[in-house]
Amino acid sequence: MNILSFWLIILVSIGFSVNVNSRKLVIDTDGEADDSAAILLTLSTFAQKVSDHEVVGITCVYGNTYENNVEINILKTLTVANSTHQIPVYKVTTKPLVEKFVYTDYFGKNGFSDFEFKGKINGHVERSTDAASALVNMAKNYSGKLDILALGPLTNIATASLQDKNFLKNVHRLYIMGGNIRSNGRHFRPTFNFESDPESTYIVFNTSSSETPYLLYPGQTDFVANISKEWRIRELGSIKSRFVQFLNKAEKKSLSYKDKIWRGGDVITAAVMLWPNKFTFNKCDA
């Protein structure tokens, strides 16, 4: 059994408590099904005292679905998590810095395979502060102690960097899902997150502080991890957990495609953050 399947199997309930000694974490997300898996995994490990990453905020960004869906999907995820205290969710950034947002329906029109979510959706979206400003404020409040898990386009991170030149210096570590390595003589398009806002990607990697290490999970690593879609459907998908049953519905469309590899980049990026000693890292220059 691999590390991902093991933890997703045993962590089936969430009950939160605030820990003043925890490592503070913001999740910057575009609200799709794979992001939801990463959020649930991160919340679960903290609740079970397996990890000390405490989620202190969630910032929303456009992605494979439109802005309203991103916010609703995050609230659905937190409703399923059944948290005992409200994690602040900040309003979505609706477009890249320069280009127009180009919609895709890889995860369905609403990013959750368009399944009907039954029951009341709890929580609300904080609209008095935009996502980038929220990132700047949290980085100041938790200076040197805040990690960011970036699962979508880097627009919010770049905008925060432009707002405050010390923003990245205040961040302890930045985990990013995106990028390509080892082309093996073939041309690869940029991954979705980087291609969606190349200007923001450039800003983030060219305003990097030596004091703030970046951990990059390239898209091709999904193929190196080689987690089969059959395993995802037959083994993980058969677990009698409200989390897994929720994710089965949210991922239904992406799981219907013919490719044999499960593209679980967002949740694996979260796993790398939570259990770095289980993975191999290579240092590179951006």
TrEMBL record:
Residues 1-22 form the signal peptide. Belongs to the IUNH family. It comes from Cotesia glomerata. The keyword Transmembrane does not apply. It comes from the Eukaryota. This is Inosine/uridine-preferring nucleoside hydrolase domain-containing protein. It holds the Pfam family IU_nuc_hydro. GO terms for molecular function: hydrolase activity, hydrolyzing N-glycosyl compounds. Residues 25-284 form the Inosine/uridine-preferring nucleoside hydrolase domain. Keywords: Signal.
